[in-house]
Automatic annotation (TrEMBL):
The keyword Signal applies. This is G-D-S-L family lipolytic protein. InterPro entries: SGNH_hydro_sf. SUPFAM superfamilies: SGNH hydrolase (SSF52266). It comes from Flagellimonas marina. Residues 1-19 form the signal peptide. Keywords: Signal.
Length: 505
């Protein structure tokens, strides 16, 4: 009994220790203290083309401008002293515009200003279709004030330095850009000049895409201007000379950094990574046996003529095999295309034009999906485009044309990387980023994966060239990662799931 009494004090202590602690536990994480590092984000200006402006679904419209990657960056910069970010908003969410009341804004090579695309569903399946209605943006109604987003859709690198690129008078002769006309400071203004006039403390620069992209989306119908140092002689769809690009970019960066601004610059993605060139197969033609036999008979004389000239040494056996056209019953017949890089045999026989069937190495442009299979002559049911009638150069980017693009792109990106180092700027490898988007995609916090698959992948808009808002968010995070690494900031980035992968109306 004495032992029991002796244990009572210890038992009491044990019971006290086991009583429930009802004190509330504060699980609120300590607030993150964001810092700008060595950068000054107080006056941020973005310079570039449609990718900077927020162009999406083949148009510029308010919601797309709000979801531009510079606007996302500006929201992050506001956490560490960033100021307001003014955008030259379009008047509505349709995207269309008029010039002096006229709806045809495609004036001598200026960017066409049509309505944005939406996904519609018909008996033939889902298809991108311009949204109905007339946009209320009037290009001649010039906006007042200065703007932090200086992204100008359709601009090539050297056009950012061109006086009068925002001139209303220049529209009629194709010397001005309608988007810049709306918010340029004057008739002789330049895009870079208006950007520098704001004395930015920080800038982003992403330009050069159109120096190569307009050639590619045109199916290689332009010329490679390598060796021509006078861009005033270029056509709209030409490839810019690498030295012209290098000199232009250097001049832009000299101007942007003249007052000590820090910044970030991005390189250019490979066109083979965008849905505009990865969606339409080279062999989409189904045929029944009778039709295949009919076509083979129709191309018999062409094939025989090729064989005869090969026997005479006019072409090689490899070119003969490349040019011989043959169809079979079933799925997977390749379209017939014009290839200007084949040997010209029309001097021997005018019927032996430069045509062949496409291979998997050819890149069909996205817009060919609604052209292949249509009739060249509505009165002739046999005049099927891509089958009986070869597709013109504008519908396909051939391997020879792709090589020109790759050479230009490699030169441009080498310049961008070198100048990023020379001007001590942050650098974004957008080329690697978009390659990753196509090959493996980006996994999100909810387990979903954003890919480059057309219409369903979530990374690209319905024009197959420009990112969707979610794709722009992924790009914004790449810019923020580069900025944090270079300037010692700790900006949080954005959640791509906060932005749509596809506008549904």
């Amino acid at each position: 009994m004495k032992k029991l009494y002796a244990l009572l004090p210890f038992l009491g202590l044990f019971l006290i220790a086991c009583e429930e602690d009802t004190t509330p536990i504060d699980n609120t994480p300590d607030p993150v203290e964001y810092t700008a590092g060595t950068a000054d984000f107080s006056n941020y200006v973005a310079v570039g083309n449609s990718l900077t402006a927020g162009f999406s679904d083949n148009a510029l419209f308010r919601a797309g401008q709000e979801a531009s990657f510079p606007n996302m960056l500006a929201a992050n910069f506001a956490l560490v002293g960033g100021g307001s970010f003014e955008i030259p908003y379009m008047a509505d969410n349709l995207g269309g515009a008029t010039i002096g009341g006229e709806t045809d804004a495609n004036m001598d090579g200026s960017p066409d200003i049509g309505n944005r695309l939406i996904l519609t569903f018909a008996a033939s399946g889902p298809a991108p279709t311009p949204v109905s209605g007339q946009g209320s943006t009037e290009i001649t109604n010039k906006l007042s004030g200065s703007f932090n987003n200086m992204g100008v859709p359709g601009s090539k690198s050297y056009e950012l330095l061109a006086p009068g690129y925002g001139s209303l008078a220049g529209l009629a002769v194709g010397a001005a850009n309608p988007y810049f006309v709306r918010f340029s400071s004057g008739e002789s203004a330049t895009v870079v000049g208006d950007a520098v006039a704001q004395n930015p403390s920080f800038f982003t620069l992403w330009t050069g895409a159109n120096d190569v992209l307009l050639y590619t989306t045109g199916g290689g119908t332009g010329m490679d201007q390598t060796g021509n140092l006078d861009p005033s002689t270029y056509s709209r769809n030409d490839l810019t000379d690498p030295n012209v690009f290098a000199g232009t970019l250097d001049a832009i960066l000299q101007a942007m950094t003249a007052n000590g601004a820090d910044g970030v610059i991005a390189n250019l993605p490979n066109v083979t990574d965008i849905p505009y060139f990865t969606t339409v197969p080279h062999n989409p033609v189904p045929l029944d046996g009778a039709t295949a036999e009919l076509l083979n008979g129709a191309y018999g004389a062409y094939n025989a003529g090729l064989a005869q000239l090969q026997g005479l040494g006019a072409i090689t056996e490899d070119e003969l095999a490349q040019r011989t056209i043959s169809f079979s019953a079933g799925e997977g017949n390749a379209v017939v295309i014009i290839d200007e890089d084949l040997t010209d045999l029309t001097g021997f026989n005018p019927a032996l034009i430069n045509m062949r069937q496409a291979t998997e190495e050819d890149l069909m442009v996205l817009t060919s999906r609604t052209f292949i299979g249509t009739l060249a002559n509505p009165a002739d049911p046999t005049s099927i485009n891509g089958v009986a009638i070869p597709l013109a150069d504008q519908w396909v980017l051939t391997p020879a044309e792709q090589e020109l693009v790759e050479n230009a792109l490699a030169a441009y990106n080498q310049t961008i990387a070198a100048l990023a180092t020379a001007y001590d700027l942050a650098f974004v490898d957008a080329n690697a980023l978009l390659t990753e988007l196509r090959t493996s995609g980006f996994q999100q916090s909810d387990g979903s994966i954003v890919t480059a698959t057309f219409a369903t992948g979530g990374g690209f808009s319905l024009d197959g060239v420009h990112p969707s808002p979610r794709g722009y968010a992924i790009l914004a995070n790449a810019f923020i990662e580069a900025i944090n690494a270079k300037y010692g900031s700790n900006l949080p980035g954005v959640n791509p799931l906060d932005y749509t992968g596809l506008y549904i109306n």
